[in-house]
Amino acid sequence: MLVPWGVHQYSSGTAQAVMDYTEPGARLIYSCSWHISRDGKDIYSWKLKTLAKIFGPLSRFFRLVELDDQDEACKRIFESDSKWTVVRGGDLEEGKSQGLPVWSRHVGDPILKSNLTRRVDFALFKVAAIENDKLIHEAPAIVSCQMSSALEHLRKPWI
Question: Considering the entire predicted model, what is its pTM?
Answer without folding.
Answer: 0.86
